[in-house]
């Protein structure tokens, strides 16, 4: 039993080390990046392992676990704190993005919860024909909408209190099967380009090169539009990873905050932030809240956003 426990501790340390390496060097290869997605669960796991090691007088194991915990915290810190205050004197709006989950059997209740949030713009993902009628009550509360889910490879429904104009036809030709809705929003006289993306699952659920290619395709589409831009959606990748990093390289800043949006059956601090809001330099990302709507394996992200001028 003693030998088995030592082996389990060694395996746990190895797993934690892989997460740290994945978070640091994920851009080398998508499979390396995959390990780094689990940074938040690794922080909790490292703390628990250190505690168990101390209680069982395994002080070398405890020291290594604490070192790995500190490494996880150092890597994650820029992405898990609330956004820094930013000067913003322009119009403000609330935006909610939510993957409704195509197997959601409580969608009508979730839709009522979304309506109670009273966001100015709502972006719903994974909308399919079978689910769309269950969203009628929610959609009726918004005078403007874009039904991108009716097109091939798109699963977004965008609802807005502000006028919307579809600008998908003006984007560069897609080089992948990207799911990207794109609209121009008139926010109290200010123009904003809003993009809603849903990236493919990472390896081993798909070829390791597909998700990075889609991320590059999304970044190219967003970069082709001038002016204030917001990119939201389900990236199936963490904030600090290489996939979202490709959007930061295109000039977008990620809205940060505590907790993970997926999966909902785990506490937020054990989850992974895969649902994101990113904005261009003209915008101030003010706040981020994660909301459980029911019936989905994703938490909704509620963001408050303002024009800086």
Give structural attributes.
309 residues; alpha+beta; Deoxyribonuclease I, Chain A; 2 domains; six-stranded mixed beta sheet; 8 helices; 12 strands; elongated
Mind explaining what this structure looks like?
By secondary structure, the chain is of the alpha+beta class. The chain has 2 domains: 2-80; 92-307, Endonuclease/exonuclease/phosphatase (Deoxyribonuclease I, Chain A). The protein is 35% helix and 23% strand. The protein has 8 helices and 12 strands. The chain has a 6-stranded mixed beta sheet, with no helix packed on it. Strand 7, helix 7 (210-223) and strand 8 form a beta-alpha-beta unit. Helix 1 packs parallel to helix 4. The longest helix has 24 residues, at 2-25. The radius of gyration is 20 Å and the shape is elongated. The mean pLDDT is 94.
- The total beta strand count reads 12
What is the C-level CATH assignment of the largest domain? Alpha Beta
What is the count of DSSP helices, taking H or I runs of 4+ residues?
8
Radius of gyration: 20 Å
Q: Approximately how much helix is present in the residues?
A: 25-40%
CATH fold annotation of the largest domain: Deoxyribonuclease I, Chain A
Unreliable spans are none
- The CATH superfamily of the largest domain is known as Endonuclease/exonuclease/phosphatase
Main sheet record: 6 strands, mixed
Terminal Cα span: 65 Å
How many domains make up the coordinates? 2
> Overall 3D geometry?
elongated
Class derived from helix and strand content: alpha+beta
Query: Which architecture of the largest domain would the CATH scheme give at its second level?
Result: 4-Layer Sandwich
Strand content: 15-25%
- Strand order in space, largest sheet: 3-4-2-1-12-11
Sequence of secondary-structure elements:
HHHHEHEHEEEEEHEHEEEE
How would you state the average pLDDT, rounded?
94
């Amino acid at each position: 039993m003693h030998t088995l426990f030592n082996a389990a501790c060694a395996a746990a340390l190895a797993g934690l080390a892989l997460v740290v390496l994945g978070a640091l060097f994920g851009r080398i290869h998508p499979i390396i990046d995959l390990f780094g997605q689990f940074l938040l669960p690794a922080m909790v796991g490292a703390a628990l392992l250190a505690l168990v090691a101390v209680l069982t007088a395994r002080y070398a194991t405890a020291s290594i676990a604490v070192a790995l915990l500190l490494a996880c915290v150092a890597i994650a810190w820029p992405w898990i704190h609330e956004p820094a205050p930013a000067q913003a004197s322009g119009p403000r709006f609330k935006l909610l993005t939510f993957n409704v989950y195509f197997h959601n059997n409580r969608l009508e209740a979730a839709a009522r919860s979304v309506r109670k949030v009273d966001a100015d713009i709502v972006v719903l993902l994974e909308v399919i024909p079978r689910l769309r009628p269950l969203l009628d009550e929610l959609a009726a509360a918004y005078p403007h909408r874009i039904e991108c889910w009716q097109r091939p490879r798109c699963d977004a429904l965008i609802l807005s209190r502000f006028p919307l104009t579809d600008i998908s036809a003006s984007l560069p030709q897609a080089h992948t099967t990207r799911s990207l809705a794109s609209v121009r929003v008139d926010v109290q006289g200010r123009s904003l380009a809003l993009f809603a993306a849903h990236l493919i699952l990472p390896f081993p659920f798909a070829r390791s090169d597909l998700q990075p290619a889609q991320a590059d395709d999304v970044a190219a589409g967003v970069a082709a539009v001038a002016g204030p831009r917001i990119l939201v959606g389900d990236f199936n990748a963490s904030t600090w990873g290489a996939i979202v990093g490709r959007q930061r390289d295109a000039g977008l800043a990620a809205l940060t905050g505590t907790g993970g949006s997926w999966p909902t059956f785990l506490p937020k601090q054990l989850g992974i932030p895969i649902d994101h809001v990113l904005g261009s330099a003209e915008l101030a990302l003010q706040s981020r809240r994660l909301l459980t709507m029911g019936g989905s394996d994703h938490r909704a992200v509620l963001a408050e956003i303002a024009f800086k001028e």
